[in-house]
Amino acid sequence: MAQQFVQLFVNGLITGAILALTGVGASLVFGIQRIANFAHGDYLTIGAYVAFVINVVFHQNLVVAALGGMLATAGFALIVHFGLFRPLRGRGTIAISLVTVGLGLVIRDGIFLVAGSQVRVFAVSQTEVVTIGFVRLSPGQTIAIAVALVVAPLTALFLARTRLGKSMRAVADNRSLAAVSGIDVERMAVYVWILAGGLAGLGGVMLALVQGPFEPNLGVGPLFLIFTTVVLGGIGSAFGALTAGLALGLAMELSTWSGLLGGIEPKYKPILAFAVLILLLLYRPQGLFGRARVL
């Protein structure tokens, strides 16, 4: 039973790290741009497919592939910002959010047209097992948790210690006050799309490595969980998203532990996240770390 708990805890850390990193970008985008980007899950797919091409087609290692996926997704996010969201500014949060739904469909169908519907796999063994004490991991999971242990603390340090990170958080917290204080809000918008796109691209690579075979619908599944993370942490709160992502990932995985009244069936894990979201919206709509906002 203890062995199962440790295994589920590690699995929860991996899931939570992916949700935390992708949730940070989605949260800051809403905080600074007031855009609930429902195409954010498809940004993960872009990162995974670009990294796949670099890794499998061009035979580069996973580090180069992940960096390529991050850069491509960040670049795509910037193009969409200047070409779509910026011209639509002032049309209302709901209208722009509906546009993002269409954008997600365009991204998904575009990948289907270009790459086809067949499943893809990174150049990583899918049968090998890495054993660390009680824990058994696939090579993809091992790489994902190594990335998470490096990138998550670096993201937190960037937001907490650097001038740019502090400025992003200031604009997300109070846009008007930040502008009066001399922060260039428009420039922060550009930077936040780069950050959100880059982290989404990395999250897509991590998700594809953990999942194994993947196809163009890769980012559809985690989208709901990403937004649950954003709401749970407090919309616009970067540190809230980091904490909430890890907490949600751990809660979902540990809920299946047999020592917890027998645990729940793994297929019901998303229902747990849905229940958390409903309760949060009913009793604490501002999230655990945020202030009350209305989408």
Strand-helix topology:
Blueprint: H1 2-33, H2 40-57, H3 62-85, H4 93-115, E1 130-132, E2 135-137, H5 139-161, H6 163-173, H7 175-180, H8 185-211, H9 220-233, H10 238-254, H11 269-283
Antiparallel strand pairs: 1-2
Helix pairs in contact: 1-5, 1-6, 1-8, 1-9, 1-10, 2-3, 2-4, 2-8, 3-8, 5-6, 5-8, 6-8, 9-10, 9-11, 10-11
Q: Would you mind describing this structure in some detail?
A:
The chain is mainly α and 295 residues long. Helix content is 71%, strand content 2%. The chain contains eleven helices and two strands; from the N terminus they run ααααββααααααα. The chain has helices at 2-33, 40-57, 62-85, 93-115, 139-161, 163-173, 175-180, 185-211, 220-233, 238-254, 269-283, and strands spanning 130-132, 135-137. It has a two-stranded antiparallel sheet with strand order 1-2. Helix 1 (2-33) crosses helix 6, helix 3 (62-85) packs across helix 8 (185-211) and helix 9 (220-233) crosses helix 10 (238-254). The chain is globular and about 55 Å long. The mean pLDDT is 91.
Strand order of the largest sheet: 1-2
What fraction of the residues are assigned to beta strands by DSSP?
under 5%
First and last CA, distance? 43 Å
Number of strands: 2
Residues in helices, as a percent range: over 70%
What letter string, H or E per element, gives the SSE order? Answer: HHHHEEHHHHHHH
Parts with pLDDT < 50 across at least 5 consecutive residues: none
Gross morphology:
globular
Strand count, sense and barrel status of the largest sheet are: 2 strands, antiparallel
Q: Which structural class do the helices and strands define? A: mainly alpha
- How confident is the prediction overall: mean pLDDT? 91
Number of helical regions: 11
Radius of gyration: 19 Å
